[in-house]
Amino acid sequence: AADFPVAAIRRDFPILHRPVDGNPLVWLDNAATTQKPLAVVESLVDYYLHDNSNVHRGAHALARRATEAYEGARAKVAAFLGAGGPEEVVFVRGTTEAVNLVAGSWGEAEVRAGDEIVLTELEHHANIVPWQQLARRRRATLKVVPIDATGALDLDAFRALLSQRTALVAVTHASNVLGTVPPIREMVALAHRYGARVLVDGAQAVGHFPVDVRALDVDFYVLSGHKMFAPTGIGVLYAKREVLATMGPWQTGGNMIDRVTFGGSTFAGQPHRMEAGTADIAGAVGLGAAVDYLRGLDRERVRAHERHLAEHACRALAEVPGLRLFGAAPGRVAVHSFLVDGTDPVALAAHLDRRGIAVRVGHHCAQPTLAALGEAVTVRASPAFYNTTDEVDALVGAVLEFVAGGVRPGPAAGGRRPGR
Ligand code: PMP
């Protein structure tokens, strides 16, 4: 909205002022990864300049400072997600690793032959393939909740798929293709009636709106720091205390043990049991700084600004002749997937790139979502709170320019342009 201090916000993100081939950068690839505020970058520099050490070992000052920073970041993440405490937060590499951890630890122990795992047509490959592999190993079956034409989940179908056989429901909190936000709380309540556990993929949610894992009553919540303005290489698995307590080790080695002899080993308590080896300590510190940054914003105003941007984008894109916009479920986050009839999406994205506008083209690691739309690829523009309506206008202007240029699909597009 007009009262959102976007100019001031943008000053927190130095990279947004970087020109690209003489054009101002227009970063509309936030669903792939977000840019980092100066406070996050400085937290990394500060950590490496002053506190760098391994953690939980070594009786010296820097080990104490690094441990304090690392565990402090865990406490910040726990509070940010509304967890019951820091002991419910496991640091991982990202969403992908968190799902693999749950499949490899909880899944191997709890999913039995004949059990069912319920997924949805909105899932990223990271929330499909680990379950597929687990199902194969455990002789379990995958069930899939379909989406409707707007990209909303078919909740009647979801209800019908649930049964005493359901071991797990794995569902995204926001689609990275369509922006759909499923009614997680309602889905959790339904799944719990059958004693199923629920894992929610928060990768595309946490950067857009506040999340309260206890209010949602989810069993597992997973996310990637790099999609919430933190560094790459750090992510989070939240697991309910009583669920995490039953989980055996996933990766093994240093840091996760209690006592080791050649006869056998005993393991540390949670969450350390899940954190074998030296963690990305600086990454955790950076994630803590991103949490501080987000908590310093008025997130209601952030959401209002994003809604304003999304409405502006939908209106402007709809004016482009032949443009088809995918995803219209109410309450979506700002992810705009589109195609322009009669034009090549890869050539379109390349044209946008020449204007300094970063979007993604492809299957977005969600091939089943695209298959449900009857497509193989889309162009995806995904704004964040630091984007402006001027940037959306630049996007739409460049799309119009491309369409007016009459670039046709296929090899002809390449053939027409000199030097290609
Ligand atoms: N889930 C969703 C919804 C995503 O958008 C992504 C990243 N595109 C992932 C999972 C995977 O995240 P990462 O690559 O950081 O592990």
Short description:
With 420 residues, this protein is an alpha/beta fold. It is 40% helix and 16% strand. The chain contains 15 helices and 17 strands.
Topology:
Layout: H1 6-11, E1 19-20, E2 23-24, E3 26-27, H2 38-51, H3 61-81, E4 89-92, H4 95-110, E5 116-120, H5 129-138, E6 141-145, H6 155-161, E7 166-172, H7 184-193, E8 197-201, H8 213-216, E9 220-224, E10 235-239, H9 241-244, E11 257-261, E12 264-267, H10 281-295, H11 299-318, E13 323-326, E14 336-340, H12 345-354, E15 357-358, E16 360-362, H13 367-373, E17 378-381, H14 389-404, H15 411-416
Parallel strand pairs: 3-15, 5-6, 5-7, 7-8, 8-9
Antiparallel strand pairs: 1-2, 4-10, 9-10, 11-12, 13-14, 14-17, 16-17
Helix pairs in contact: 2-10, 3-10, 4-5, 11-14
The structure holds 4'-deoxy-4'-aminopyridoxal-5'-phosphate (PMP).
Description:
The strands form 5 sheets. The protein has a 7-stranded mixed sheet, sandwiched between helices. A 4-stranded antiparallel sheet has the order 13-14-17-16, covered by helices on one side. It is built from 15 helices and 17 strands. 48% of the residues are buried. Helices cover 40% and strands 16% of the residues. It has helices spanning 6-11, 38-51, 61-81, 95-110, 129-138, 155-161, 184-193, 213-216, 241-244, 281-295, 299-318, 345-354, 367-373, 389-404, 411-416; strands at residues 19-20, 23-24, 26-27, 89-92, 116-120, 141-145, 166-172, 197-201, 220-224, 235-239, 257-261, 264-267, 323-326, 336-340, 357-358, 360-362, 378-381. The chain is globular, with a radius of gyration of 22 Å. With 420 residues, the chain is an alpha/beta fold. Mean pLDDT is 95; it is low at 410-420. Bound molecules: 4'-deoxy-4'-aminopyridoxal-5'-phosphate (PMP). Residues 31, 94-96, 124, 126-127, 172, 176, 201, 203-204, 224, 365 line the site of 4'-deoxy-4'-aminopyridoxal-5'-phosphate.
